[in-house]
Amino acid sequence: MRTEPDAILGGRLILRQPPRGAHRAGSDAVLLARLLIPAPGATLYDLGAATGAVGLVSARLSEVGRVVLVERDPDLAALARENASANGLDDRVAVIEADLLVSGTQRRAAGLQPDSADIVLTNPPFFEEGAHRPSPIPQKAAAHTFAAGGLDLWLRTCSDLLRPGGRLGMIHRADALPACLDALRGRFGDCAVRPVHGRAERPAIRVLIAAVKGSRAPLRLLPPLVLQDEAGRFTPEAEALHRGDPWPPP
């Protein structure tokens, strides 16, 4: 089914997505896309890109040299290509259909070369098989679930694709922070963790994690982001990020 494209960043980017009920990009994608600002000419990978929201936001708002959207689902990869073209970003954006959990040999055959990215942004599946009730919609279930040990393999691939000193940006469930830190250990350091709260009085629902490949610098816990005020409106900080403004200094 064809759907009308969504306008994000105040209309600066249009995004065709699957029908409602399937996995669709929203605030998670915008927050992740603004987490790390690439240097002019840098190469950025969006891993598990779906329709390309994270990488395309970065391409629209920065002087990144090349964006690679990596997605295993052929239908989503086709939408990502369509979105890159519709936004006039074909010259800087490539789409690779690949499974991030296969062997290094298979990844290279698909076009994913080690030490080739300056920045990797990723929104990995949030659950392991058996740890939650999957969606009855196959595409949504696949986007949210992978096999046991999948997070460690996913972050191993992120590390493989990054150059030494390259930067990783990731968003995940808040309660998955211990598992994320375990999977990052030995591969990344200088981890900066920012909790994201739906409202100020509620527990965090997400964590944004930035880390540097090969660094030994200690972990930093940054001030939280609160998305909504008591009336359910975006807070000024959240509103600015959804317009495409950068994060304020910590």
Task: Describe this entry's structure for a reader.
With 250 residues, this protein is α/β, with parallel strands linked by helices. The chain has one domain: Rossmann fold. It is 28% helix and 28% strand. The chain contains eight helices and 13 strands. It has helices at residues 27-33, 53-61, 74-86, 104-110, 138-144, 150-161, 177-184, 236-243; strands spanning 6-8, 13-15, 43-47, 66-70, 93-96, 117-122, 127-128, 145-146, 162-173, 188-199, 204-213, 220-221, 225-228. The strands form three sheets. Strands 3, 4, 5, 6, 9, 10, 11, 12 and 13 form a nine-stranded mixed β-sheet that branches. β3 (43-47), α2 and β4 form a beta-alpha-beta unit.
